Amino acid sequence: MAQIEDIKFRQTSKFGKDLRQGEQFIRLTQSICPECNKILPATIFEREEKVFMRKTCSQHGEIEELYFGSFEMYKRFSTFWIDGKGTLAPNVPMEKCACPTNCGLCTNHLSHTGLSNIIVTNRCDLTCWYCFFYVKKGLEGAYVYEPTTSQITAMVKTLRAERPVPGNSLQITGGEPTLRDDLADIIKIIRAEGVDHIQLNTNGINLALDPDLATRLKQAGLSNLYLSFDGVTPKTNPKNYWEVPYTLESCRKANLGVVFVPTVIKSINDHELGDILRFAQENMDVVKAISYQPVSLTGRMSKKEREKYRITIPDCIDRIEEQTDGQVTRDDWFPVPSCSPVTHFIEAFTKKPQYDLSIHFACGAGTYVFEDSETKKLVPMMSFVDIPALFEYLEEKTDELNSGASSYLIAAKFLSHINGFVDKKKQPNGLSFAKLLTNAILKHDYSSVGQFHIRSLFLGMMHFQDKYNQDEERLQRCDIHYLTPDLRIIPFCSFNVIPEWYRDRIQQKYGLPIAEWEAKTGEKLEQALYRGTLRRANRHQPASCGTNEVRIEPITGT
Amino acid sequence: MQDFTPLQGLRRNKISGVSFSTSRETFPYDESCTLKVKFGVDGGIRDSFRHEIWMDAHKRNDKYIRITYKLEIKKVYAGLALKSLIKPVKAVKKASIYWTRNPEMVNLFEKKVWALIIDERRTTHIPATEEEARKKLFEFEASFQILGADVGVGKHTLRAQVGASWGKHIFSEKGTVSGNSSSIKITCT
């Protein structure tokens, strides 16, 4: 056999030469200049047990940014680096990879859509200082963007046309989507196109003001709320501290599940992550999950400002460990792509492509916690399931199936081994993890997954990128996508990180200038602003942890 | 993973470079010695693990390769390795074939695919060269501390029995290889 040429990968490391004393090289990637969007080589390195990114623009100089707050966690998470199936039906054919240009999805994208987003309006009833999304007067080039129902139908059809896995999970987002009067109709349209999971990204205020809205949306086909919830005090959560108890009560009546979504900002609300968890625990009958989102720093910011606000996934995980007195530890968390062994096993077993959460390991993390019925303490899944051993076992059996082993034989082996991964003494009462996994994997019966939500919470973490920490290796694997009226499917971290190329351009093309929108509708943009009705009423229990029972009094007119 | 297309003309797979050594040939009963075993997998599976094949494997969604290593150390009686001295070891090394954005790969290839190796201690390595990737994936090393009580007073002959296995991939059929080390002698006093 001919001698194999030894291809060199990074031996010279010319871009890594800028490493300084006390720094350890990890890998090279590409990023962008926060000023001019030029694609730059970027070095990922370790210093003082944290992971940083450094890049230099010939015009705008050096930019160094915290990338991941713990090197130890980065190493553990990196063992789950597995590329996904990508999309076989790209909307943007590309011969060569050119991220972050021409997103849509292109031929080179490595993940199919895990969660799609449709913006139904960019109007909002709040004006949060850190939000990058809502339309406001006084800004040059501000457009009101509200796609028509026929545009929405076309967008959903594009999602469903994705291959090998048609998109099946969709988030209605804004702005504040409840400002659209036809929201229930939109949900029905999406459901009619065959989307199984529809969630509503909202601040919850209109659901608090109109107690029947949750019921109407549930009846239209809504699966759950993705409820913005930044803290348990008025200071950390001026957005909806007073309103959330009403929103929860509406959802309780409608039997509509809620996911809390705190945007985590260092020095602002990072001291309340444990309290948010306790508040969710107190409302576990309706709150099913928390999705902590370390802030994405948009706009131009000085290094000093970025250091003040920047927080990453490991930092949030550590704060949760501290603030729950060690009930949920850093070892309980796994990166999102750690689901791959389960997905690949089901694929090998069924011989059909399955839904694969194949994002980059640094993008997100998650864990499940259960409430002990006696002590009321939180019991993470890791404390009664040997997850690393289970993953190893599934990978081994996947190899056997792919090598031609009988699926009946593997199923029999699986059934005889599954209990070995579960410590039944520590397993919460009423839960049979082995049965649940068996039903999901072998019988493809996911109804039993509902068992997970009996006195349990899914804790998730998703760190969207910004221009300072943007990593093309993460972008290429993004599975949270936007559907747009030009029938593209654009990764979140292109759409929002480079709005001048994506979001703003689309909203300009398909939106109306504010004055034109106001003339057309006869409304004023500021008419929709929330005036704090429920705050002034002030008769109810606010969203904090002082009580196990949130008492709601009827809302009367203002 | 798509249909299997076997590569032609590959070398037969085998265990190679088995090395078995002790830190001390003679040691007191109340002390310990360290046994070290090294071996590798050679042949077609190793030759196939190269950039050109990674590109094809990535394109055809065959992106994850596991090599399972097995190792036992046995006491030899009358030329036969009969009694296990340690609990049999099973360790897994993995390779994840991924699309890199390393700028030094830009313009080198149409698809900038590389392999990262996850070793048996669950540590990730991004190898600098293809050869380093092959070494990290196809070579295995382990050491064990044994006490006098594990072997008993007297002269002992030890041998390592080693093996490796892997599943089917676009570049290889599933395979299993095994081998033995030379015997070593230790004396516990």
Question: Would you give an account of this structure?
Answer:
- The complex is a heterodimer of chains A (558) and B (189).
- With 558 residues, chain A is of the alpha/beta class.
- Chain A is built from 18 helices and 19 strands.
- Chain A has helices at residues 71-78, 149-160, 183-192, 205-209, 213-220, 244-254, 273-282, 303-309, 313-323, 340-350, 387-402, 407-417, 433-441, 472-475, 492-495, 503-510, 514-521, 533-537; strands at 23-32, 39-47, 50-57, 61-68, 115-119, 143-144, 169-173, 197-202, 224-228, 257-261, 263-264, 287-294, 334-335, 364-371, 378-380, 456-462, 480-483, 489-491, 512-513.
- The model of chain A is unreliable at 1-6 and 546-558 (pLDDT under 50).
- By secondary structure, chain B is mainly beta.
- Chain B has one domain: Sandwich (Immunoglobulin-like), CATH 2.60.40.
- Helix content of chain B is 14%, strand content 49%.
- The N and C termini of chain B lie far apart (56 Å).
- Chains A and B meet through strand 1, helix 1 and helix 11 of A and strand 4, strand 6 and strand 7 of B.
